[in-house]
Each structure stands twice: as C-alpha cells, then as structure tokens.
Amino acid sequence: MNQRIQERVAALREEMKKAGVDYYMVPTADFHNSEYVDRYFKMREYLSGFTGSNGTLVVCEEEAGLWTDGRYFIQAEKELAGTGIRLFRMLDEGVPTIQEYLKQNMKEGQTLGFDGRVVDTALGRRLEKALAGKNIRFAYDRDLGDAGWTDRPALPCHPVTVLDEAICGKTAGEKLADVRQKMKEAGADAFLLSKLDDLMWLLNIRGADVECNPVALSYAYLTKDDCFLFIQEGEVTQELKDHASKYGVTLLPYGQVVSFLKERKEKETVLFDVANTSYALSCALQEKGETVEGKNPTELMKAIKNEVELSHMEEVYRKDSAAVCKFIYWLKKNVGKRKITEVTAAQYLDGLRSQIDGYLDLSFPTISGYQENAAMMHYEAEPETCKELRPEGMLLVDSGGQYVGGTTDVTRTIVLGPVSDEIKEHFTAVAVGMLALTNARFLYGCTGRNLDILARQPMWNRNIDYKCGTGHGVGYILNVHEGPQGIRWRFTEGQSEAVIEAGMDVTNEPGIYIEGSHGIRTENVMVARNGVRNGDGQFMYFDTLTWAPIDLDAIDPAYMEPREIAWLNDYHAKVYEKIAPLLDEEERAWLKEATRPLPLS
Amino acid sequence: MNQRIQERVAALREEMKKAGVDYYMVPTADFHNSEYVDRYFKMREYLSGFTGSNGTLVVCEEEAGLWTDGRYFIQAEKELAGTGIRLFRMLDEGVPTIQEYLKQNMKEGQTLGFDGRVVDTALGRRLEKALAGKNIRFAYDRDLGDAGWTDRPALPCHPVTVLDEAICGKTAGEKLADVRQKMKEAGADAFLLSKLDDLMWLLNIRGADVECNPVALSYAYLTKDDCFLFIQEGEVTQELKDHASKYGVTLLPYGQVVSFLKERKEKETVLFDVANTSYALSCALQEKGETVEGKNPTELMKAIKNEVELSHMEEVYRKDSAAVCKFIYWLKKNVGKRKITEVTAAQYLDGLRSQIDGYLDLSFPTISGYQENAAMMHYEAEPETCKELRPEGMLLVDSGGQYVGGTTDVTRTIVLGPVSDEIKEHFTAVAVGMLALTNARFLYGCTGRNLDILARQPMWNRNIDYKCGTGHGVGYILNVHEGPQGIRWRFTEGQSEAVIEAGMDVTNEPGIYIEGSHGIRTENVMVARNGVRNGDGQFMYFDTLTWAPIDLDAIDPAYMEPREIAWLNDYHAKVYEKIAPLLDEEERAWLKEATRPLPLS
C-alpha cells in the first residue's frame, strides 16, 4: 500500500468537498502549455506518484484514475501500485478517453473542477463539448491541490537577459511592427501571446525558467499602440527595463494577467491561439468581448530564420559538430580501456560542449543508449543502473546545446566494436534515408508530408518503420522542438500543414529500432533554401548545418546505389573540410580516416 | 462582328426580362456534374460560341462575360471576337472571380438566374455566401436559354445494359445492403445519389449517354426499404425491368426527380454530396426536411476493386497492352515508308482495340501528339491540320478502351528516329520516376500526397515540373477518371485525402513537357496490394496492370542507378512474358529486342 499517495488524494478530496467539486482533473502542463514543465507544475506527479512526462489524473469521491500513453504503461503500473489509483491505458481498445469517462460517469448538475491555468483552451472546449447537455458546472478558477502540497517548490524565477540585437537580425521594434500588421490582417485590435518561445523571440529576450528551454514565464498583450509584458518582478533586470522602455513595452506583474484582461476598459477584438492559451485566459477574454481564434502570427515568423540568425547558426553548428567529432574519437579510442558508462559518456560530451564559446546550456538532456537500450526512443540512462560500454555493438547519442548564436540537435550512432550483418544493413538503410532527404529537390509548396518518404523509403523497403516523425523545427537560442514545420507522413483529416519556407530549419532523423536488440538514429539539422526559379515555380533544396561522420564501420556499400555512395562521400568530404581546423592533430588524423571516400561501386 | 452570337445573347436577354432576372449565369455542366457533357448540355457554347471544355457565361443587360482558364485564353479570345462578350481570364491578377464580379455589380434586391439543375450545390452555396446581405433573389428553376435554342439536340437516351453478375464480384443487392449500412452509420434514412458512375456501379448497370463514359442519365433515391431509379423511359429495357424487380428497385421517369422529392410524404433525413448534387435538388431536399451532407458512400466502395473485378482487369489489360505493342511495332516499321499522321496513327490503334473480345468503346478520345505537339497536354489532333509523322523525334500516344472486364488507360512515347541527348535525358528521367513509384513500399495510411515525390523527384532534380498530378483512379467498365484516390502533391487547407486501400487502382504517369520542343509521358495503371503485416503496421505495394515496352531508343542508362536499371529490366522481362503469346512471330521477335535487358552499370 502506498499510504503517502493515498493521503494526498484524500486531502484533495477534502478540498473538493469544500469547494463543491465532484470531479477534479489534473493534467501535466504549465500555464503556457509548454513541452517541458518545471517542478512547480508537477502537481499530477505529486498527487499520483506517477513520474512519466505525460499523464492526467481524474479524482472523484469513489475513484481516482490516471490516463497515460503506451510509452508509460509498464512504469505507471509499477508506480501506481498500492495507491488505489486506476490506470487507464490510452488508445487501448475499450479504454474510454477522459472526455468519454466524464460523460459516462458525471451526473446531471455536477461540478467538474480543474485549474483553468494549466488546461489549454482546446482541451477545455473538448470537455465542454463532451459534457454538453448535462448541465455540468466548470469550476476552473482554483488549484485545489495547492493547499495540501505544503513543500511545493516556488514558481521558477530567474533574471531575464536581453539578446544583443546584432545576433537577432531584427529588433524587437521591427518584430512588434510585423506582428501588429498581422493582427490587422486578422481583423484584431489586440493579441494575447501565451506561448513562451514565441514571446522570447518577439522581444529578443531569453529566460531560464524551464530546463534546457531559455524561456521566462510571461505573457504579452499587444495592442496597436501598447505592449504589456506580464513577468515576475524577480525576473526584471535593469537591462530588461531599459529594453522595454526603448520599445514601448510596459512591465506588469506576472500574476496580474487575468485581472488585467478582466478589468481592461478598452473595447478590443483580441487574437489568441487555442492551443497555448489557457482555458482561464480565453474565458476571461470571451467574457469581455470579441475574440479571433487563429495561429500566433509569431510562430511562422520565428520559424523562418533570417540571414543573421542563419550565419550564427552555421558557426555554432560547426563548433558543436566539432565537439561531437572529438567525443566520437575519444569514445572509440577509450572504450574497453577505461570504464565508460552510458552516463559518463554523456557527461564527457556535455563537458566538451560546455567549453564552447557562448555555451549556455544543453538543449535537452543527452540521450545515451547502448545496445538494446538504444531501441527505446525515450530511454534515460541513470547512473546507478546504466550499462557499461564494451568494445562491441553501438552507442546511440542524441544531444544538443544552447549557445549565444543557436540551438543544436544531433544524433550519431557510434560503432564500438564488431556488429552483425543485420545491423550493418540497418545502419546503411538509415544513412541512405537521411542522405536522400538531405539531397531532396522540391518545388515551393511542399510540406513535410510530401518529403517524409524520401527518408523513410529504405526502411519501408525492409518492412520496418520508425514510429515517429522524421524531423522537427529547431529554435534559435530557443526550444529544440518548434513548429510549425516538420517532416511527418501521416494524414489527419483537417490538420493544417506548414509549407516549407526558405530559412526554415528542420531535423532529418530517420532510424531503426529493434526491441531488445539495437537502435540506430542518424540526425542532422538542415535549412531550406531557394534554388532555381523558373516557369515551373520556385525550386528548393536543403543546406546542412551538422558535420559529423556517419560511422563507416557499420556502412555496407552493398546496400547502396552509386549515387547514394556519392552523397555520403560528398558529405564526409565537407565534414573533414569544416571540422578538421577545429581539431588537434591526432583527432584530425582520425577524422581523415573516418571520412574517407568509399569506392563508387 | 459575330451577329449569330449577338442575336442569341439578345434573345436570352429578352427571356431574362420576361422572367425578371437581372443577371443570368450559364456554367458548363450536366445535371450530375459529370466530367464530360453531352451536346444537349452545351448551352454555354451555344450562347457564346466558345468551344472550350471549361467556361461560364454571365449575362446582364449592359454586359456579357465569359470566364475560362489559362488553357483556353488564346482560343477564347479568337472565338469571342465580334460577339461583344468580354473575356475574364481566370486567376490572372486583378481579374474578379464570378462571385466577386456579381458581388461588385449586382444591386440590392436584384435577381440572379441560372438553371439550378446544372449548378452543383457547392457552387450555389458559394454564390449565396458571396451575395449574402444584398437581398438577392435566386431564380434557379428555369433554363432561360432553352426557348431560343430551337435546334437544341435531344437529351441523350440510350438503352441501359445490365452487367453479368459474374464479372461484378458483388450483386446489386449486396451493394445496396452495404450502402444502406453506411447510410445508417451517417445517421441518414435515405440517400440521394446523383453521381452517374457511382449509380452505375451500385446497380451493376451501364449506359451510353456520355461519350466514352458508359453511364446513363439517372438518379437514385435509396431508403431503408426502397430504391427509386429515375431514368428516361427510352433507356428502360426488359432486362433492366427484370433486374430492377429482382432487387426491389422502382423505375420512375428521369424528369420526375424534383417533384418526387418535393411531394414525398415520408419524413426522412437524406444524405447527399454537395459536389455532384445539383443546387435545384439540394434546395428541394432542404425545403422538405433534414439532410446530411457527406461523401457518397458509393465512391470509396467503387474505388476499391474486388478480386473478381481485378482478375478481369488483369486479363483485359493484357489484351489492351498487346494492342499497344502491336501498334508500336507497326508504327516503327512503317514510319517514313507510308503516310501516317497523328490522326491516322490514332485510328490504327483504335482499330486494333476494336478487335479485342469484349470491346465496347474507347475510354477517351486517343491523344496523339508528334514532336512539339506532345508538349501540349490537351492537344487534340484534327485530320486537316495534324502533323505527318517522319522517321525522327517522338510520338506521344495516350489512349484506352472500355471492355466487358475493365477500362484501360496507357501512355507511351514512341521514338520514330533520332532524338537529341536532352530528350534522352528527359525520357530516362520520366521512366525512372514511373518505375520508382511502381516499386514503392509504404505503410497503410499513406495517401497520394505521400507518394507523389517518388515519381516526380527525377524531374525536380532537373528543375522541371509537370504541372499536373501523377495519377488518378480508373473505373471498372466506367469512367477513366475516378476518385477518391489520386497521386498528387499539392496541399490545400482543409482538403480531404484518400488513404490508399488495397484494391484501389491508380495511374502512374509522370512526364516532361517542353513547350515548342517535345513532350514525354509514360503511363501504367497499378493496383495497391497488401504486403507484409507486422508490429509496425500493414505494408503495401503496387501490382502493375499495363505491359508495354518503355522505348529503349530514348533510354540513356548513364542517367540511371543500377537499381533503376534492374527495375526496368524486370518490367521488360514481364512485358515479354505476358505479351509475347498474344503476338505473331514477327511482332514477337521485335518485342524480344524491345524488352532486352540493359547491362547493370
């Protein structure tokens, strides 16, 4: 029996009773629907004991249930044992969604409670729709778990920094003008921006409130003439004050955003997005007046990197790639000679990155998976339990850094000793897929759904799939995952797709994951560029930003066409050209060999 | 001055005055929004003198305008000269759409007239939306052009035939039951079917009212227990009467569909599709009661060919391909030795087809374009003006037949003599694209947008595009173009896409069209099939139905990878294996040479 969790749920039920709430829902989100959340926001983990990144707890008097996805079924079962909380395996046959569950169980006239600040508008709407006609009251203005969580961490609060305009390519003033133009086109007088990375981009500022994501908890409310930035006082520096005053930005306390919106006298039609604006905020907006629901205009602007950003990225990626090359060299030289584990290998790489000029942070915790561990896409090595590396098989390392000048993301699967013929075939197929997408030529108007098959075809030819997209956008000194661009193949009725625009960056990361055996991923970051324009349209291609060898120890040219071998040789020649100057002599000699051209047939 | 047309427009204006109509619109469509229309429906051509396949005439007291697309600008200008009708070049900058034009010009309280039977519901809705708030009356119940067109052809009316159930794979009774099930799932009590090929498929009948399309003008109204078929009395044979009675189908006069719907007493929620149901019919439905707008459930059922259909198609395609092979042999042997023109070449091929067992008709008028004429995708050779073939360059022939057992569609570009190196490169690129799509392996869930780039990449690699889709569905003893499947790449927000299902047939026809120089297209028909199913999903591949050599006289292996050469050799080996038995000795010897394997590097 897990008494601690049972007591926490009981305490929550007490608060529910006091508040007149029959069902209470706790999702995993912050106030901005960020991909990663700070400890402050881990209420669902506190209440349920389940530590996975995705899960929603629903509590009523008779029952408590936790919904999570297939990645976490085994872990959740273990962590929920003895808590009395029932596991709902999402997408399994016969398992109701939360909406279906509430619809089936809630009675006419009952009250559903949740903290409306951590439920995004789209989810709130789905709940409204599912429960329509049952006269259900929504109590969304209180966090009922807070009272019982006596040692809850404080809201993260770190000083904000202002970026040097020279590395931004556009001033905050110019960006504000661009967004105001888009507001006008959308028929809006004002724009409420809740998405943290969009907001950082807009004002050329950065924060440190979310691990690996240089964002500050904040909201912006932009009108034709004014811009209000809601931010904790502890984050406001003199630098930020000066910057804000230069661009007509008024600083207001973070906690005042709801009351500001409710009390604002001006009649304004307000643009906001339903995905990242909390239910609490959108309800406040809609009680006041007219709204326009649309995408944040900042999203597309941020995604298209300008030439200043791109030139800094090129430089940063070169240095970051050199760290990866040094790491591979070190690893191959030392494996089997000294004790190296999945964790210490990652630490060595992290250490190399930290020595690079302008290093700020990792862009995500380094993934380091040896042998069959690499087949788990969300594997996190722990110091106590992780594998020791031996001179055989492969280590998959997916890593990246935050630098003044860019955010990186790169994966290499490194051969540490003998590998099977099957592994060589798989490794070669992954490399061929990555190179085929790299060398794509396409007309303007393509989206990721048109291109995905170029990377995936070598795997599909072998009746193998990697169950994820091929690529995602990458921020500029911002979140390692950003949209709207992406390389994915599945069709979803009614889903919007982002046309690939010149200046958009995207990862290219096909893989093969064989459970219990091995995992392979090779990942570069690329930038879309305009090529020839003629009567048939604007042709486009990708420039590569990442320069690290693809391990020839697992390449079998028997599985490659001459053109594919030429692509690989061409890539490797450039790796040597760009990275050799950043290495010492011994490393350089190794890189020369690691990037040697393969014979063409 | 074109007095004849001016008089016709004047007569229309008289009718408009009598009917109190201020603006009158004449589109190019039949009552079923068919792709091809009979002479009876060419009212717009009669009134304007413009003979192109796409165009809409709008007439008011002061002005008459004709809207058409880029394919027809030059032709329309010529044909409209002296008529007083103004040409509106669709999609040209600054040119209003018809909706914009009407919105700009119609005055509060005026009346817009059109024959509501030839305007589909989707277009009617767009007009309603554009003119909302101007208090415009819609007069859609009369064909105001009819009175003046004294020598108008009669409605086409040909006896209907009933297909032998042995070649259908499913009886009409089974299909009716399947559709009733879909009606139920859509929450409908009844289903109004206006789309002619869907209707023919549903009842296992065929007509002859539209050139090359074996369909009969008709409507069906299906309820849980009844099925009403509206069809001209002149089309009803004893065979049809027996068939109808066997499956509980009541035959009613074609012209009574509107009054039937208006007068029907039963309260029914009626399913219909907005694309193929006329505005007149959908208004009648909506005045009566509840409707459900959705796709015709017949569309997807018809698109997925069953095994009986597929086995007949295989046989028919083999014979049809043999005719194409005989034609290529004859052409190569005789060009330069006797007089052959674009038109007489097509006639020779049409003649070969007509000798095949079960031949019914062509599936579309044979396209035969020599040299630069092949670069015009909609080229129609005329006996008086067409080119004579010489022993040089290439002839593009796109053709197909209707047979008891299938509908075919095949294109080959045939080398008649020396061709340039550029042409060889282009020809090889087209062949490589066609073969790459043929050999695609993909997971269930893919739509044509995922696959198109496989065919198009060799062209895009050369900064060339073909400005059309790569493939379309093909009917079974039905229209040569059918949906919902297709291989296209462009994204349209909100547009539905058809997942490729096992049993769907689709053309594979990449090309290169260089204006004033040459045109190349190579087209096979393929069928999607299920391959391996494993933990990653259901893998799929294509089977080919078309067997005719790809002209090695224009293939340059220097532009091919070994794998691509192997694909070509493999295809050619199968062409010989399948077609040789259907040829005479001389033809067979030629085919052996025409399908010889190329060395692998």
From TrEMBL, chains A, B:
Q: Which residues form the Peptidase M24 C-terminal domain?
A: 538-598
Give all residue intervals belonging to the Peptidase M24 domain. 312-528
List, alphabetically, the Pfam families matched: Creatinase_N (PF01321), Creatinase_N_2 (PF16189), Peptidase_M24 (PF00557), Peptidase_M24_C (PF16188)
Keywords associated with the record: Aminopeptidase, Hydrolase, Metal-binding, Protease
MF GO annotations: metal ion binding; metalloaminopeptidase activity
Q: Name one GO cellular component term.
A: cytoplasm
Q: Which CDD domains match?
A: APP
Identify the residues that the record assigns to the Creatinase N-terminal domain, covering every copy.
8-135
Q: What is the similarity comment for this entry?
A: Belongs to the peptidase M24B family.
User: How is this protein named in the record?
Assistant: Aminopeptidase P family protein
